[in-house]
Amino acid sequence: MQLNLIELGLAVIYYLPAFMANGSGPLVRNGTPIDGGRVTWDGRRVLGDGKTYEGLILALTYGTTVGVVISSFLGSEWILISFLESVGAMLGDMLGAFIKRRLSIPRGGRAIGLDQLDFILGSTVLGYAGGLRVSLIQFLFICLFAFVMHLGTNFLAYRLKIKSVPW
């Protein structure tokens, strides 16, 4: 397997809907929690206040809109792929929040790896169901890219007072 910069660039384009969906959530300040305030067997919230219906709708809208633009270049199937990637990104993010609550990590608490990759794994699974096809090299590159971008964009969001913590 040879490193091909065009393939790596395409991987970024393929995952733009997931990145857009995942990055749009913090734009919702006060929303209706998806878990409705419910707790699990351990007495902790299912997801917490950070996962809201409004954030979910915004994420799906942003991610799918990016897919509509991508479909102009790569074909109409990208509308469905981008929607599924966006749903997968949000489900992956919610699974990450669920795991963090079980580990007693509070909202905004740091969980290296989980914070950066939960949405990529979710978007890949559902994206594949819709027709997303990436090589192992592209997937591994996107994982590294997501890790670095997550750290950088969260620090920027913190500096712009969009997030309360820099991670």
Automatic annotation (TrEMBL):
<dbReference type="GO" id="GO:0005886">
    <property type="term" value="C:plasma membrane"/>
</dbReference>
<protein>
    <recommendedName>
        <fullName>CDP-archaeol synthase</fullName>
        <ecNumber>2.7.7.67</ecNumber>
    </recommendedName>
</protein>
<comment type="pathway">
    <text>Membrane lipid metabolism; glycerophospholipid metabolism.</text>
</comment>
<keyword id="KW-0460">Magnesium</keyword>
<keyword id="KW-0472">Membrane</keyword>
<feature type="transmembrane region" description="Helical">
    <location>
        <begin position="136"/>
        <end position="158"/>
    </location>
</feature>
<dbReference type="InterPro" id="IPR002726">
    <property type="entry name" value="CarS_archaea"/>
</dbReference>
<keyword id="KW-0443">Lipid metabolism</keyword>
<keyword id="KW-0594">Phospholipid biosynthesis</keyword>
<feature type="transmembrane region" description="Helical">
    <location>
        <begin position="53"/>
        <end position="73"/>
    </location>
</feature>
<keyword id="KW-1003">Cell membrane</keyword>
<comment type="function">
    <text>Catalyzes the formation of CDP-2,3-bis-(O-geranylgeranyl)-sn-glycerol (CDP-archaeol) from 2,3-bis-(O-geranylgeranyl)-sn-glycerol 1-phosphate (DGGGP) and CTP. This reaction is the third ether-bond-formation step in the biosynthesis of archaeal membrane lipids.</text>
</comment>
<dbReference type="Pfam" id="PF01864">
    <property type="entry name" value="CarS-like"/>
</dbReference>
<dbReference type="GO" id="GO:0043338">
    <property type="term" value="F:CDP-2,3-bis-(O-geranylgeranyl)-sn-glycerol synthase activity"/>
</dbReference>
<keyword id="KW-0812">Transmembrane</keyword>
<keyword id="KW-0444">Lipid biosynthesis</keyword>
<keyword id="KW-1208">Phospholipid metabolism</keyword>
<comment type="similarity">
    <text>Belongs to the CDP-archaeol synthase family.</text>
</comment>
<keyword id="KW-1133">Transmembrane helix</keyword>
<keyword id="KW-0808">Transferase</keyword>
<dbReference type="InterPro" id="IPR032690">
    <property type="entry name" value="CarS"/>
</dbReference>
<dbReference type="GO" id="GO:0046474">
    <property type="term" value="P:glycerophospholipid biosynthetic process"/>
</dbReference>
